[in-house]
Design brief:
mainly alpha; 51% helix; 0% strand; elongated
């Protein structure tokens, strides 16, 4: 399941994330719309609040 917590990290860690997205998502494969932002996940607001200003939200979230 792409996007599920452990699976997403495993695909990212092994360098297969984009390959799998293109294989199972025809729109992504045709549009070539995968960007660097798609390698990131949002940081929980509670974590940002605890460490502000040291930590900021990932771009796009």
């Amino acid at each position: 399941l792409l996007g599920e917590y452990d699976r997403w990290f495993d695909l990212k860690r092994t360098g297969k994330l984009i390959e799998r997205v293109k294989k199972y998502n025809p729109w992504a494969a045709k549009s070539n719309s995968i960007k660097d932002i798609h390698y990131l996940r949002p940081i929980p607001q509670s974590e940002i609040d605890l460490s502000f200003p040291a930590m900021t939200q990932n771009p796009g979230y």
